[in-house]
Amino acid sequence: MRMSKKYDAFVTWASGIKIPTNKKILDQMAAWSSTLNNKVNRNTIMSWRVMETNSMFADRISDVPKSYIREILKVAVSPNIISFAGGLPNRDLFPVQELQDAANAVFNDNPKDALQYSNTEGYLPLREFISRRYKEVKGLNIEPKNILITTGSQQALDLLGKTFINEKDKVIIEKPGYLGAIQLFSIYKARFSPVTLEEDGVNIAELKKASKKRNTKLMYTVPNFQNPTGITYSNEKREEIAEVLRGKPLILIEDDPYGDLRYRGEQQSSFMNFLPEQTILLGSFSKTVVPSFRTGWIVAPDEIMEKLIVAKQASDLHTNYFTQKLLVQYLDKNDLNDHISKIKDVYGHQCLAMIDSIKRHFPEEVSYTLPEGGMFLWVTLPHGISAMDLVQKAIEKDVAFVPGNPFYVDTEETISTLRLNFSCVDEATIETGIASLGQVIKDFIANKKSNSIKKK
Length: 456
Ligand SMILES: Cc1ncc(COP(=O)(O)O)c(C=O)c1O
What we know:
CATH topology of the largest domain: Aspartate Aminotransferase, domain 2
Structural class: alpha/beta
Strand content: 15-25%
Distance between the termini: 53 Å
Strand order of the largest sheet: 5-12-11-10-9-6-7-8
Shape: globular
CATH architecture of the largest domain: 3-Layer(aba) Sandwich
Number of strands: 17
Radius of gyration: 23 Å
Bound molecules: pyridoxal-5'-phosphate
Oligomer: single chain
């Protein structure tokens, strides 16, 4: 649909309000964002969404927040930079030879079948493996018919968006929350109800309020070693959450790609134990085998599974059958638990090394999470210190991280949090990088203090 000639675009602010604007203002906003000029509050830049008028593009794609962070981090790939910005599993731990052997076996044994189309639900032996593993590792009884193989757990989220979300339906999301879920539910034009993530899970008072809002369909959680914070929900919090949601027309999504990567502490119960009729579980082989296979899954009750299968069929017919067969071959000939132990050993040591370096090099006013697993640690700077400003200074000193900004859906305040990844950086490099970052933070705080004294 065309707009009146007077305006060239809408700017959609984080609050959801759309304001018509003209090309001159748009050009100015673009210039601000590309130079990251000091005069502009970066958090405000983060929150605008420009919708081109007379555009061929659908609103659902034009309205999704653009990641200015990605632009900043493009420089972080330079070999001189120590990057804690990534979110990837460590490639040195990929079981390359074992997967090559498995691929050869698939080619040697009925290759024509492995290269043919297959069914939407996924390869039955793979679903049986997942079902057995749920029983062994978590004590959960999940039948293969309630497991749908997806193209990564990211596609599982997409299918849930397709199946449940009408425009303006509400999704409860952790604050801060997983960027991929924020992007995904934005595509389906959901409204977000963010609830603050505390040390042991989401704030219950905020959840009670959010869950009462009309048309609230989903609550999205990453209860084990959350991305971005590394936080794990306690069993008590899980029970309280289940109590709040029980009986409401609302589905809880438990996204659990990191659950197997526990280095310390006790395994916590799945929401399946507390709220079985309303829980949908997501899993993935991306962090335990390899991400390139794009193999994940959804666990859902029969009635929901029926709809998800239709959504999946319309999306891509089925997940890559060859890699599903290859995975089954690999899982048959190798012990996945042994492989996961190797990953946990490396990540666990790197996590401890990062915590140890932070203790020695960061100023006392800085706080941080103590993850018991996963790949990330979350840092909170003193109030008013902008993580977006800090990342510029850090990159000048050859160290990178992800500022907290893109993980929030609703804030105009200065964001003082940041995410550090420890899966891809060895212990010696962690020490060097955290020492530099500590110095950058100290200089930044000192500078800010002296500027505010001068102003007075
Ligand atoms: C919380 C969370 N969910 C889902 C995904 C997507 O994983 P997959 O590779 O299975 O699509 C990620 C990826 O990093 C993630 O952190």
